[in-house]
């Protein structure tokens, strides 16, 4: 009986937080997509690659976390920001190491123009996934919304270094002593 229990424990996925397993590791595919984005010949090609990035970022660690993410995104889509925020709060509580939970919660705060609340979630997203282009662009927009122009422009440059085709590129302004 004991050997069977040990074998089952060894085969089970690692579990953290309140039962949430480790998020899927898509780092190799994400890295390849980011390289393809830098070499994309046009905006249409880049849009398809960006959509694939979002699919990977939105691949939650397990079924309960995927349900919370999907419900939150559906609520956001119908402008039910209170429900969306509730779902993302639950997701972050359940899977505190899953970057997209923080990123989506930040987006709700951003949409509500609560930039001060959005910024810590964007920072946590980027701590977990430093190459999250969506969070970098969101951080740039949030900082600009807060009137922190220089920091916003620097965050925008970091996002554009990963994806030069972002629509936010139209917000790029020269830094002091720089020409575009």
TrEMBL record:
PROSITE patterns: TPR. TPR repeats lie at residues 99-132. Residues 1-17 form the signal peptide. Pfam families: TPR_2 (PF07719). Keywords: Repeat, Signal, TPR repeat. PANTHER family: TETRATRICOPEPTIDE REPEAT PROTEIN 6, UDP-N-ACETYLGLUCOSAMINE--PEPTIDE N-ACETYLGLUCOSAMINYLTRANSFERASE SPINDLY-RELATED. This is Tetratricopeptide repeat protein. It comes from Tropicibacter oceani.
């Amino acid at each position: 009986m004991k050997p069977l229990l040990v074998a089952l424990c060894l085969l089970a996925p690692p579990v953290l937080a309140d039962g949430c397993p480790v998020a899927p590791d898509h780092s190799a595919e994400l890295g390849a997509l980011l390289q393809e984005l830098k070499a994309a010949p046009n905006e249409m090609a880049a849009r398809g690659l960006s959509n694939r990035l979002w699919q990977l970022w939105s691949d939650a660690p397990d079924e309960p976390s995927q349900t919370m993410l999907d419900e939150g995104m559906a609520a956001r889509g119908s402008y039910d920001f209170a429900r969306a925020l509730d779902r993302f709060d639950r997701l972050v509580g359940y899977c505190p190491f899953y970057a997209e939970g923080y990123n989506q919660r930040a987006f709700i705060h951003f949409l509500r123009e609560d930039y001060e609340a959005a910024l810590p979630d964007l920072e946590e997203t980027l701590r977990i996934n430093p190459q999250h282009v969506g969070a970098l662009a969101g951080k740039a927009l949030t900082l600009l919304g807060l009137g922190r122009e220089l920091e916003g422009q620097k965050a925008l440059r970091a996002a554009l270094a990963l994806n030069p085709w972002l629509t936010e590129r139209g917000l790029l302004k020269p830094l002091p002593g720089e020409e575009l």
